[in-house]
Specification:
By secondary structure, this protein is mainly α. The protein contains 15 helices and no strands. Its main location: membrane.
Length: 336
């Protein structure tokens, strides 16, 4: 006589089973609910690698270690970008759903900007590959900006909110001179620079106006740290293009923003850790790089150490959440 079939879960404590949402994600297939929230820490890690490259060039630190780090970051970047593209290829319409959510917009913008930085990483070794990455990334970023503007002007009134993420979307082109100038595209580098400086200035003024009108809720406050990134990146591009006075002025602006964020750290983190803490990573790495580019090595190295600790902490926490399946749930990520 055949005995009663016992379900495989019988006898296991509930804590030993993955949550229902995680089981559903696993059943649907690998990377089908990959959250764009994994990309801000990746952007921070890429920027950190470039900052360590500069430290190797300007100090007695071994530059080979920085290049080894950048090689590992390049492989990780290829894996993450490829994983997300597999999700988009399964269902291209998922992009529209991602863009309707703030974590999705922030993550996709960070993915594009990380490609700008990755072009600068590989340019000394493979200029052709660097240019190809840059062209593809610029095309994607232009489409992203168009989609965001369309949603802003055609969406409901209550959804028309300009967030610090717009700095990534519309000022992220400030990174283009990192690659364009060494590859000989000087005019394009200057064009991207002046556009990005104008865009960043407009968005800074808008941010001040918004802070005067309304204090952002605690969970969204970490995004304010993004405003440090364009100022720091403008310093780097100014140095590359030879605008020394502009570089000094922007370095002072970046230092002022950094001090304001540092003094507001407790207020910024009042809601506790969340995926939005990825917004702390890349601005701090860019700030460290900018300080060293100006020759302010003491503050630059201190900022580099702080950035290394912050990137390691945030990236490990966010990517652990991704591996467990909870990051997609917390950010309400759509499934392909």
């Amino acid at each position: 006589m055949m005995g009663r079939i016992v379900p495989p879960c019988r006898g296991l404590p509930m804590s030993a089973l993955p949550p229902p949402a995680a089981r559903k994600i696993a059943a649907r297939g690998l990377f089908r609910r990959m959250p764009p929230a994994v990309f801000p820490p990746l952007l921070g890690l890429t920027g950190l690698g470039l900052a360590w490259r500069r430290a190797g060039d300007q100090t007695a630190l071994p530059g080979g270690l920085a290049e080894l780090l950048l090689g590992g970051i390049f492989l990780l970047w290829c894996f993450m970008i490829g994983a997300y593209l597999s999700k988009v290829f399964r269902r291209p319409g998922v992009l529209r759903e991602e863009l309707s959510l703030l974590p999705g917009r922030a993550g996709l913008a960070a993915a594009d900007v990380s490609a700008f930085l990755m072009a600068a990483v590989v340019a000394p070794y493979l200029p052709g590959l660097a240019l190809a990455i840059l062209v593809l990334a610029v095309g994607c970023h232009l489409c992203l900006g168009f989609a965001v503007l369309k949603a802003y002007f055609t969406g409901p009134e209550e959804a028309r909110v300009i967030t610090p993420v717009w700095q990534l979307i519309f000022t992220g082109y400030i990174i283009l001179p990192f690659t364009l100038e060494p590859l000989g595209y000087t005019q394009l580098a200057h064009l991207a620079y002046f556009y990005a400086v104008f865009s960043g200035l407009v968005l800074w003024l808008q941010a001040v106006w918004m802070l005067v009108k309304r204090i952002p809720p605690a969970p969204l406050r970490p995004l304010l740290a993004i405003h440090l990134a364009p100022a720091s990146l403008m310093v780097l591009s100014s140095v590359i293009l030879g605008y020394e006075t502009m570089a000094l002025l922007l370095a002072v602006v970046a230092s002022g923003i950094f001090l304001a964020l540092l003094l507001s750290a407790r207020w910024l983190t009042a809601a506790g850790f969340s995926p939005f803490w990825g917004a702390f990573t890349f601005p701090l790495a860019a700030f460290a790089n900018a300080q060293m580019a100006m020759g302010w090595m003491i503050t630059g190295i201190l900022a580099l150490i702080a950035a290394s600790a912050m990137v390691a902490f945030v990236a490990s926490r966010v990517w652990q959440m991704w591996a467990r399946g909870t990051l997609a749930i917390k950010t309400n990520t759509p499934t392909a």
